[in-house]
């Protein structure tokens, strides 16, 4: 591998450019430190997010970089927001457009199918991930495809697509840099927009040294990016099929839209003769008047950039080419029927809720052990598997920042609270929480018992040894200190001061 | 699978969202549009990492020639400029891979975002938009629209099978937020305003 760089990559003027996904202050990890890995997955057993989060926080350099990088994206988003007078109006519109489309989703799906088919796109329907994978494999097999190039898609992560294709001897090459890093490291993406954001440059250097033969001692981001470009290009040119996701699907024109910064969706779709797009059924919008609302919000919310470098519109196959769209349900129609949780289907996968979330920024996306991490993950993941993801809705401080930044106004923090109630109602609650809740429930149910318990608790807090307050059962105590306890309760104070005062006035 | 199609549509029809969700009217948000959109376009393009070439009234194609500084094949999809590689009906998408520079004309530009729109009509072979190392783009200043709402009123969306907004060169910051141009697509993008 040559270390010779094109001069564009070395920024000869020494200017700091911060468009696209770039960070505004130059960040650089100072030390090399082993990368903390994600949550331990044990079959269907509930994922322990806090265990993985603790390991991430113990890796201080990773935690600090991750926190700084994502907070920077949040601040860039705020700057963009202030530059657009109609920002709040756009958010309201985006929310109502999505609600409208979801309320007539059957109509819009059929309209898209009709228009896309008329333009020469073959439309398929898959009720779950397994069916999606089978449909794609059938298309690839019948055309003798051995190598597939692919742009980033959270839906294919949901479907376990890469593993399935590996078992079926189809080589899948991810073309997004972050996603390719994750594929070569055999790790899931940790963030919907920046999949390798939890890695330091030294982690990437070691992955590339092992897999594509880069210099293990060179952790320069320009060098590593160039190595990947040079290693991936021959694979792109020799692939027989390309795959993309879809950010938005325009029913009235039969168009689907893909947004990338690298141009890798265009490469994947246009270089080989066959293009397959896997798209969730919730991505529909009515028409072209609605599309700019979302294009204007997406990258500004995600990265604080006015638009992605590439916004690509596909309305039919090119001459001599072939185009397929697989519309995938995978739990979405069921979610549409959930009274409290259907608004989660409005999500456009910008990741703004992750960037702003204090829990996400300090624990890393892989700690959630699920396809979707961060606040949006807390409310989507339990719809896939209520038992396995039952602990996730507790990985939130309920500060509501996620709801405030959401470009389509999903009531994320309210849904987190609703999931806690729903999970408790379904008995999906950990044994420790059950014991604590039961005791708390009995005390809180009776005003007399509650009042009697307060002085006890107060004196207990003051006199109990530290180890009894900060133990394994009290997960809240682990990273927090309890404020100093007052000498009396409010009721005691009131009785002593106000009551005696008013009695004094009477007499 | 047709069984799944009916099952999915049936499952959707069995759900009934509470409340009315009318389709909202979307304004164009263009009342503050300046008369001259060129300055705003340039500002937005530069912000996205693109470059503006200085026009030369006496010799309109001189800036294009001057922008070509590296050896390697030049492909031109515009009649104003002659490249050294011809695109014919037999040209395959992968044939564009060795190209160093492609000279293209944009269908139109968007001042809000510095975006250039290309469709298969301007690209001839779709891969001329992103397989070359560098792009040099001619843009008619009369074909700049103010914002994305105006852009989606254009006729191209109902004519083309493939249309892309390219806003600056290919970019990534997937490693520690360090910006690198030329992640997979073009390493640089220069624009010459030329009617």
Q: Tell me roughly what share of residues is in helical segments of chain B.
A: 10-25%
Greatest contact between two chains = A-B, 106 and 76 residues
Rg on CA atoms of chain A, Å: 26 Å
Q: What's the tally of helices of chain A?
A: 22
Strand order of the largest sheet of chain B: 1-11-6-3-2
CATH H-level superfamily title of chain B: NagB/RpiA/CoA transferase-like
The CATH architecture of the domain at 89-333 in chain A would be 3-Layer(aba) Sandwich
Average pLDDT score of chain A: 90
**Residue fraction in strands of chain B:** 15-25%
* CATH third-level topology of chain B: Rossmann fold
- How many β-strands of chain A, per DSSP? 10
Uncertain segments of chain B of ≥5 residues (pLDDT<50)?
none
CATH class call of chain B: Alpha Beta
Radius of gyration of chain B: 20 Å
Task: Domain count of chain B, please report it.
Answer: 1
Q: Strand tally of chain B, please?
A: 11
What do the pLDDT scores of chain B average to?
96
Under CATH, the topology of the domain at 89-333 in chain A is which? Rossmann fold
Write the layout of secondary structure elements.
The complex is a heterodimer of chains A (507) and B (195).
Chain A: H1 49-58, H2 60-82, H3 87-103, H4 105-118, E1 122-126, H5 129-142, E2 147-150, H6 154-158, H7 161-167, E3 171-174, H8 177-184, H9 201-211, H10 221-238, E4 241-244, E5 248-250, E6 255-260, H11 264-270, E7 274-280, E8 284-285, H12 291-303, E9 310-314, E10 322-328, H13 332-336, H14 352-356, H15 358-363, H16 374-384, H17 401-405, H18 412-425, H19 431-445, H20 447-463, H21 466-469, H22 490-506
Parallel strand pairs in A: 1-10, 2-3, 2-4, 4-7, 5-8, 7-10
Antiparallel strand pairs in A: 5-6, 6-9
Helix pairs in contact in A: 2-12, 3-12, 9-10, 16-18, 19-20
Chain B: H1 2-13, H2 38-47, E1 51-52, H3 62-67, E2 74-76, E3 101-105, E4 108-110, E5 115-119, H4 120-123, E6 134-139, E7 144-145, H5 148-151, H6 156-159, E8 162-166, E9 171-172, E10 180-181, E11 188-193
Parallel strand pairs in B: 1-11, 2-3, 3-6, 4-7, 6-11
Antiparallel strand pairs in B: 4-5, 5-8, 9-10
InterPro entries (chain B): FTHF_cligase-like_sf, LUD_dom, NagB/RpiA_transferase-like
Domain LUD (chain B): 100-193
Protein name (chain B): LUD domain-containing protein
